[in-house]
Amino acid sequence: MPQFAANLSLMYTELPFLDRFAAAAEDGFTAVEYLFPYAWDARTLRARLQAHGLQQVLFNAPPAGLGRAAMAAAWDQGERGTAALPGRQAEFRAGVLQALEDAEVLDCPRIHVLSGIVPPGVERESLKGLCVENLQWAAEQAGRAGRTLLIEPINLRDMPRYFLNRQDHAHELLDAVDSPHLKVQMDLYHCQIVEGDVATKLRRYLPTGRVAHIQVASVPERQEPDRGELHYSYLFELIDQLGWQGWIGCEYRPAAGTRAGLGWRAPWLPG
Ligand SMILES: O=C(O)C(=O)[C@@H](O)CO
Ligand SMILES: [Mg+2]
């Protein structure tokens, strides 16, 4: 049976961030993910998780910045990671170390590392070596800390010039980095927009054990997975048949209220 985690950055936005934990638990979620913890003291977030019987299953390393305040502000300033960006290695390393520290407090096993926006005039291919070198260093740190780092192919309509867009490119990076501590975050919304053939890709990649997290949303609106051009009930059954034991993050923007839109989950609730 697929297990769903609420994404508190996109869901429950009717509520202030810290109140979203309680709302997700009231709706029967036992796990959450969200973009970033850096605007908060991680102990405040841990207290919310514990108070509501939730586990944190994923968050992102900082998109850029040196120091917690700069890391917390970087996303709104347009930063989308530094793993593949020349001249940003100090920020990349500081970000990974900060994320690992927060993961310890939050008892979170997975951290998504963003690779960055390809600078104007630069060829994507030319950044691969640097990205591999950075990810090798980061995977080693993650391994020591008992965490798994993830990379996620993201579509270019939502994130123009983002470095990593295709599933095969993510798996090529895994080949090159060659670490058990680096895996793929397979977001089916992005996968459908960039390359399609989603069921075939699930059949190809889930059995490899190299996918450590799945995310879902309708395409193209990025809303509940009961609408749009992807037939999610088929995909959820397939994911189940493929023996997936991991989490599926609900990374969607509810069409008309989070709770009102949760009907799609009914066939997948335990008991
Ligand atoms: O945008 C997505 O999809 C994500 O999973 C984020 O963590 C990164 O933008
Ligand atoms: Mg995603």
UniProtKB/TrEMBL annotation:
UniProt organism field: Acidovorax lacteus
Pfam name, any one: AP_endonuc_2
Gene3D superfamilies named among the record's database cross-references: Divalent-metal-dependent TIM barrel enzymes (3.20.20.150)
Top-level taxonomic group: Bacteria
Name the record gives this protein: Hydroxypyruvate isomerase family protein
UniProt KW keywords: Isomerase
KW ATP-binding (keyword) present: no
UniProt feature coiled coil, ranges: none
Listed InterPro entries: HPT_OtnI_isomerases, HyI-like, Sugar_Epim/Isomerase, Xyl_isomerase-like_sf, Xyl_isomerase-like_TIM-brl
NCBIfam families per record: OxoTetrIsom (NF043033)
GO MF term (any one): isomerase activity
